[in-house]
Design a protein that fits this description.
This protein is an alpha/beta fold. The chain has helices spanning 6-13, 18-27, 34-54, 100-114, 126-139, 153-166, 175-192, 206-214; strands at 62-72, 75-84, 89-95, 119-121, 144-146. It contains 8 helices and 5 strands; from the N terminus they run H-H-H-E-E-E-H-E-H-E-H-H-H. Helix 1 crosses helix 7 (175-192) and helix 7 crosses helix 8.
């Protein structure tokens, strides 16, 4: 892990392909094949996400939740995401389907990692509402469900930032690699938002912060 190069962070932070990064590193006197960068990303990113979560800031009790489309091997899959009212990322989950089961899985993961929310704003999706209601009943909690479209404008904008990074990647070929890469993209986005308390003061950008995690 300690030898994982900055190129891994570049791939997850910016709209670049593996070949773009191969060329950028060669310009800096570092010869590395794009397939090696792919290996680093797929093998080390899950551990980096795990490390990051130990230092993630609390996200509060008011959430905005929505899902967006991600293409994997020419088929649309679904990335569930939630942010708080300040725009900080709460959690994310890639699923094969968009239904009650998927929504419930997302909320259970978000609560497990961040604690129970007091309010969740969603779109008009019946599946999302049913998912929250199911989790609320299981946990015997009192989560307020709101369905106000304008409150979700911010998360829809946040989706676009993730998809902006994904677009040059030439498409995901399988669900597992997509899940890993999207997890890394989300970690870099959270570092950019200042959602970690483990970064030294001299760290100036999200890639430098990411590099601290891989040391």
């Amino acid at each position: 892990m300690q030898n994982s190069p900055r190129g891994q962070g570049w791939y997850l932070a910016y709209p670049l392909s593996y070949r773009n990064i191969e060329e950028m590193m060669l310009e800096r006197g570092i010869e590395v094949n794009h397939s090696t960068i792919n290996f680093w990303v797929l093998n080390y990113t899950p551990e980096i996400e795990k490390r990051f979560r130990k230092y993630k800031h609390p996200v509060g009790k008011s959430w905005r939740m929505d899902e967006t489309y991600i293409k994997i091997k020419e088929q649309w899959k679904y990335l569930y995401r939630a942010i708080n009212k300040e725009g900080n990322t709460i959690d994310f989950l890639l699923t094969a389907k968009r239904d009650l089961k998927a929504a419930k899985s997302f909320f259970k993961k978000a609560i497990r990692n961040n604690g129970t929310s007091e309010k969740v704003n969603i779109n008009k999706s019946g599946a999302n509402k049913a998912g929250i209601e199911a989790v609320r009943e299981e946990n015997q909690s009192n989560i307020e469900i709101r369905q106000c479209k304008y409150l979700n404008n911010r998360i829809e904008s946040d989706h676009r930032k993730v998809k902006h990074i994904v677009r040059p990647m030439m498409g995901f070929q399988n669900f597992k690699s997509a899940k890993i890469v999207l997890g890394g993209i989300e970690v870099l986005a959270m570092l950019r938002k200042g959602q970690s308390n483990c970064m030294p003061l001299f760290v100036k950008n999200s890639v430098d912060a990411f590099y601290q995690l891989v040391r």
